[in-house]
Design goal:
The strands form three sheets. An eight-stranded mixed sheet has the order 2-1-3-4-13-12-11-8, sandwiched between helices. Helices cover 26% and strands 30% of the residues. It is built from six helices and 13 strands. By secondary structure, it is an alpha/beta fold.
Amino acid sequence: MIAIIDYDAGNLKSVYKALQFLGKEARITRDAQEILGADQVILPGVGAFGDAMERLEQYGLIPVIREAAQSKPFLGICLGLQLLFEKSEESPGARGLGILPGKILRIPDDEGRKVPHIGWNSLDLTGNGRLFAGLPKEPYVYFVHSYYLQAEDPSIVKATAQYGVPIHASVERGNLFACQFHPEKSGAAGLRILRNFTELRED
């Protein structure tokens, strides 16, 4: 069973439906025992960094996430990627989960470039990321975000994208994975990424 962590984020149902389409058993839950007993765990997210951290704390999910991220395949999506890091320019003073080293920066405003970044972008795959097995070298995926990751450790970056600035679009460390883009909205490439994740087992 795949646990989708429920903290009132906006894209829970779209992730759930994509997993259903793949024939995978999934459950939207904030129950600690269900999350820690799952085969894989997904932390989705659409919304503001600080508000999301407050909800995770309110629901008692911060220690659960930290434990799950150490013990089983764990995937952060969009805001779920950003929350895994230390801080975000979106919410000064708010502390992220700090599971991975890095910071979240605002995409700079520039003439001819809209923020938020909404739409399809190609990825530049690096480092043989396990999420991207079987995909072409520059797959197209769907983004919706105003803030982007600058990871401190370049060795964890497995995909980048360009939108005025280089975006660390996907990271991997051990059994921990995260994508700034939305695989559940990225067509066949996104479904392949989700399938690759669901077929991972605990290290």
